[in-house]
Amino acid sequence: MPTSDVQKLDLCGVSMNLDMENLVDLDAFSEGSILHHVRKRYYDDKIYTYVGSILVAVNPFQRIDIYGSSVVKHYKNNVNSSEPPAPHVYALAADAYDHLCSGQGNQSVLISGESGAGKTETAKKVLNYMMEVAGNPGGGNKKSIADQIMESNPVLESFGNAKTLRNDNSSRFGKWMEVNFNSKNKISGCRIVNYLLEKSRVTQQTPMERNYHIFYMLLAGADPALRSKLHLAEPDEFEYLNKSGCTMVKSWDDEEEWGAMNAAFKTLQFTKEEVEDIYSVLAAILHLGNIEFEAPDGNEDASKVTNDSTVKSLAKVGAILKVKAGDVEASMVQKLSQMKGRSSVIAVKLTVAAAMSMRDALAKALYGRMFDWLVVRVNDTLNSASDTDSKHIGVLDIFGFEVFAHNSFEQLCINYANEKLQFHFNDFIFNEEMKMYQSEGVPCESMTFKDNAQCLSMIEATGRNPGEGVGLLKLIDEQNNLGTSGSDAKFAAAANQNHGKDSKTINPYFEKNKTNPGMFSVGHFAGAVEYDITGFVDKNADSTSESLESMARTSEIKLVQKLFERVPEAGASASGPRGTPRGGDKGRKAANKAKTIGSQFANQLASLMLSLKKTMPHFIRCVKANHEKVPHKFDGKLCLDQLKYAGLFEAIRIRKAGYSYRIPHEGFARRFAITGNQQLLKLFVHKKMKALDVCRRILETATEQGVVSRKNWEVGKTRVFLKGAQDKGEMEEFRESKCHDMATKISSVIRMFMVRKAVFKDKFEAKAREAKIRMENEKNGAAAIIAQTAFRGHFIRKRSRDLKLIVQLKIAMRGLDEDKIKEAIAAFEGRRISSMAENVLYDAKKFLSEMKERRKVLYDIKVALETEQLGDLQDLVEKAEILGMGNEQAVVDAFLMVSRIQEKRNVHKKLLDFLEDDAQNSSQITELLDAARDLGINDRFITKVEVAYKEVAPKLEVRQLLRSGVEEVNYDKIKKGLVEAQKMTETMEEEYKMGLRSKAYKDFCIVEKAAARRVMKMLMLEADLTSRTTEDLILDLKTDDDDEEQEIIIAETSSRLDTFKMQMCRNIANAETELLKLDARKELMESCGNRREFDETVRSYKWGKIFASWKYEGDNTAKAPDEDESFFGLHPADAYERSVMNQTALVVELGGGRTEEEKKQDDEREVDLRRGIKPVNKSSVSLMQTPSKKRYYGAGDKLVLPTRKGEKNIRKGKLDMGMGGTSSGRVYEMKSSSKITMGGDMEKMLQSRRRVIKKKRGLIKTLQKLTADTNQKWK
């Protein structure tokens, strides 16, 4: 959207973001702009805002520290300053008081707003300001008149305020206070006039509202004596208090307010008797509400007081009012009536409903007349010393415009009063506008606005003037004058006849409801309000039954007598008991004729308006921020409605009737000077022409070009006036077009200069730049030489000093001279040093601390050496090595001592272990004894070990022989070792029997013997399976089970495993990948020469791993059962069992030979492995591929079924070969005579194998020699 269009739509102007204290200074005056700034200031805790001379006060619902004596003094001293102070209720009060003091006549402060908007509190602040600046201090115990005026508020609030849905302390009456001032501008008195007290609240309240505060205060604060005298109880026990469901208010302390009210009574000089009479009337009203009626003996046309508890309430009323209870009852159940044309009076019985209405009428009459008397009584005190001709400031605290879902007669009266005040307000605003135009020199003869006079005429007209109908209030009075024949319906018909569309005196502000004849609408200044006529006639009647008044006059209480005394016609006042109006005799005569609420209220308003017209008004519009009564919450719609009801937008309408946009000369000229010619712009910029003349020239130019009409603008003395938003928008559009033209010219000139600069600048400026650069280089070069000379000299001198100190410090550090190091470090102190010197200094300090640490360590080592404390020495040696002290002699000595002590302890421990068990460390005894002698171990202990070793040495030789035989699978060694072990066992048993030994040593070499026997068993099994016969040997061997000799045919007598073969087997077992394992197998195969020897070597390596437990202890491969693809191949027992089951596969199972198909499969498998292809298991099983069986067999052909313990031992790796008796199962061994018959193919294979073995034996001796040479290398 173009800027011009935005400006046309921006009715709030350019001042939206400013903090505007007076909204009349807005360049755009509208509902939105006023609401925006009021909200903005409210959230900044600035609750007061001016709209011209009108003060808007938003209720903050919290205490704000903006009041007090210091604030009053500030506003008093700045009332006439050049810069007016911030908006405040004190500022408006100061302005009113200043006008009064300066002789500008009487003043008035008109405060309005809806319930809960803060009218009463604002009125108190106005009075508080006047008391502070114009109050006379009292003398001694006597209170000043200012104090008495302020103390009137607690009394009037107690009797005239109540809790409503909108406000916890709502004023239910209007109040006009005239504060009088003497010739010295000091307060001399005050007069209060009250308006339209809500008497219906005494007998009936809306749910969750309360009756007037005074009833609850009386019940909460009365002392026991007063409670007993007046028969008081809790609020819930009185019908006039308990119907609404609310008896307590958090923000109003009844007991505390009771004390404040009684103190105010004393300040206002009420007598004790008057106060007691007031309390008696209040108590009588409460007991009246508890009286109930019933029809006597079924007579519906009569009534009487019920016979239960209400009779007591009736008696209490009589006792409190000092009237006979029967008279009280009679006044309520019957009505005195005078026949027309006769002087006699008759008593008419009333129905139950009518009696209850009479009871409520009596209660309302008592309270209403007492409230009027209370105001008069307060006036007697406040006005006792007042001069009738004194000047005054009036404060009007009156109900604001009201619009409810259901609006009745009370709302009509309240809105009528607001219409009267709005008329006065409009007249004042219009006059103020006219004064401003006159002061600015702006013609205003044609300015007019439409007021609300026609609406007022519809309400209050008498119908005597031609062309106007009878007013609504007059029409209601006519219905009251008709007596029982008058009705609400007749009033509605009369209203429509006088003001409706079909009447001759039609009024545009009146509208009849087309669907409900009992409803009509009035177009008030704040908006249309629809009224329900139900009860209008009854509510307008203010007459009290003669029977009630006659009964009340018989009371012995003076206050009650005074309330119902007959007032002579000549002495009647316009306001009745409310106060003395200033209307003179004419007003008094009108008051005497007033019989209804409406006519009385109209007379009061007429008197009030007469008083207001004689004063200079100051307006305060109170606004309720939200219904919840919480701080910092601004309900925009609610506040907008209240601003409308307050008539602020009527001020906007009046302003828009003239020139709505007012802009200061300076601001208008600064913004729109561009629309004139270039000369005018220069004159304004250089201040050679006044802003007023510039503005006039601008507008004349705009008029000549048809932008704005001449009748739509004026130039005043300080401001420019535009008629409306359209004119301002046209000026903005005109300015935008001028800006566009100017921008085009400027851009063309700029582009021209840019081209010129691009063409000529480099040519003419290049030489200048070169000359300048040359000069700068010469200057910089000379300056650089000078600076470098100075810097280098300084740097060298400084560095030479630092280097000298650094050299001294390093020499001291190299010499390890602590004192010189300290002196060198001290030389650096107190002077600036280079970063290099800082690093050296840091190293020196660190070196110094290390020297101290080294000295301490050396000292501790010497002490530990003397005391031979091994633990301390170990820690100190480690610390010394960390500090780099390994070459120190003391450290070396300590290290040697620690090593020697540790070695000595280790040797001693091993020898002790040998003495406890000769199997431990037996192979190292010789070396341990030599070390013990070198280390200085006790000779007796060494001798003891030597004796033990000599005794054990033969056994050790036998054990070593057995071990080597088992490890190498050497038949000769095993045989020899078993024979020697048997002989030694027999010898030791004989010595034991002869008493030469303390024990028999039956368990001598039990592990080695068992392993040797099992290896022999395996050899026997292997020989038995292969049926070897060449160069057979026979070994007589006794088993653990029996002494039967068995023939074992053994083919080979040399060692199957030497160091070289064992290493190659380990390479196969430890290969990490399949390829590595394949390469290791090929290497072993080449060393063996054929497959049979390879398989025998593998089986022998496995036997060694299984049976040589002393060598492979802790090796998992020696303990774990065989698994698929393991190196070890089939367990010998499994091989035997399989051979029995399938004799044709015997040679294959024992690795005796391979078919061509198997060789082909092995070659293919190797090729696949070389290529990285994972091999697939074949159906045939070789020694390298063990089937996953979980069964184990004995040496015979029968299956051994192990027990649970046996299975557990198998899982732990304790393999039962059926030879050692470790299994609990029965084992059937195959006898050696059992031969296996082989076929012709098998015999040919065995003969071929034997020929190979003969060739191999020739190589064994050569290999043994080579093995002896390489044993050390492989270890």
TrEMBL record:
Residues 18-736 form the Myosin motor domain. Pfam families: Myosin_head. Residues 570-593 are annotated as: Disordered. The keyword Thylakoid does not apply. GO terms for cellular component: cytoplasm; membrane; myosin complex. Gene3D superfamilies: 1.10.10.820, 1.20.5.190, 1.20.58.530, 6.20.240.20, Kinesin motor domain, Myosin VI head, motor domain, U50 subdomain. It comes from Triparma laevis f. longispina. ATP binds at G113, E114, S115, G116, A117, G118, K119, T120. This is Myosin motor domain-containing protein. Residues 605-627 are annotated as: Actin-binding. GO terms for biological process: actin filament organization. Keywords: Actin-binding, ATP-binding, Motor protein, Myosin, Nucleotide-binding. Belongs to the TRAFAC class myosin-kinesin ATPase superfamily. Myosin family. The keyword Nucleotide-binding applies. GO terms for molecular function: actin filament binding; ATP binding; microfilament motor activity.
